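Worked Example 4.2. Read the sequence first, then its structure tokens.
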Amino acid sequence: MAHLTGQTVLLTGSTGTIGAAIARELAREGARVLLHYGRNRYAAEALAAEIGNGAMCFTADLSDPTTPSQLWAEAEAAAGRIHALINNAGILSPSSVDDPLDQWQATWSRDVQVNLLAPADLCHAAIPHFRTHGGGRIVNMASRAAQGGYRPGAMSYGATKAALVNLTQSIAGGFGVDNITATALAPGWVRTEMSEAYIAEHGEAAALSGIPIGRMAEPSGIAELTAFVLRPSQSSLSGAVLDVNGASQMR
């Protein structure tokens, strides 16, 4: 059944492994997907052609503070009514307390901008639009790293994802009366280019050692859950943080 027929969804980070899987699943569910990309125009246009349903492409460098609001404005001008926002784009930047202070601060500033401030600005644009049109859905892609602290070499990633969870819950509590829902997904290890690079360096056993079920999540599984959250029947998931980590614990 096409549960999202008639829905228009703005998806950031659409050309990554998880983003592309989400776009395909949303289209299978009947949605029109507005595909955001940073640099890879060819991949975005190829994905739009593949999924159809009136998919459109929009570019924005989310590390630039001026672009998230512009992205929403361009998407709204082109598509009209937008029913849902998925803040999927994100970065993980290695850093160390042994880094020079200016390098440390630059890493944190970029992670905060892309992982937290860009989603916040998009929510700032989306919420009034949703209010005007009778409601809407927000899905924020957090991480297992948001809970219980994160490894010393990527603390900015964990901190920004934790803040994104808090933002999600604040929106859910503050705007439910306007028929606006917000839900966070918190994946652990997912089979992506990033995880494959880690495996190439450290070995698969290192990646799987903390996952009791012994395997990573697949991008298609994250995509299915994202589409499920957007179904009209699932408004009560607002405020939830959905862990997708195979019962893994922070190490």
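Now turn to a second chain, presented in exactly the same format:
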Amino acid sequence: MILYPAIDLKDGQCVRLYKGAMEKATVFNDDPAAQAKAFADQGAEWIHLVDLNGAFAGKPVNAEAVEAILKTVKVPCQLGGGIRDMATIEAWLSKGLARVILGTVAVENPDLVREAARAFPGQVAVGIDARKGLVATKGWAEETDVKVTELAIAFEDAGVAAIIYTDIDRDGAMQGPNVEATAELAWATSIPVIASGGVSRLEDLIALKETGAPLNGAISGRALYDGKLDLAEALAALKA
């Protein structure tokens, strides 16, 4: 399992939200590139980036911060938030991003996901964000009646590199991930699943690992900033 340290970008700063609420943002660093370098220096193999403003706006908003990160670190980065057309996908990948994450369009325009996955093998992931098992879109502001497993299975044959599954009610709440639902999703699809939302201590990562489910990794943000999770220790535990 890979541990993906998260850098959530709002107004050019590294923040963490509480259960997806933009008005409940805590600023952890006003220099995202320095934060990315710190994660890389501690041994991170990947970095997970989210353009929070972009998720609401439907287009990239924190591009300057993302580009600064890509120029500063050599480790691969994946980005979600506001990526909703082929031109934006192409632009980001040409700037050195290793993987784009498509969330809202996975529900609203699944053909775009398929087209992008064909055009850029291994570089397109689907972000599935959910409340109580139902998918939410547009920066988690809109809820749908689409079930998580149904959406994941719909992309089985699309060549998608990974699914990032976020339980919104756990995100930023430091209450642990939804281990059961994450494992269930990983067993239900052949696409590698990355757990997100609520990973707040070493025991959470071990619990995910011990399900035996074919999980690619887990994302953690607030716990790393708060010092509740030590990145080097977590990386060692996942390799054990």
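Notes for the reader: The mean pLDDT is 93. The longest helix spans residues 32-41.
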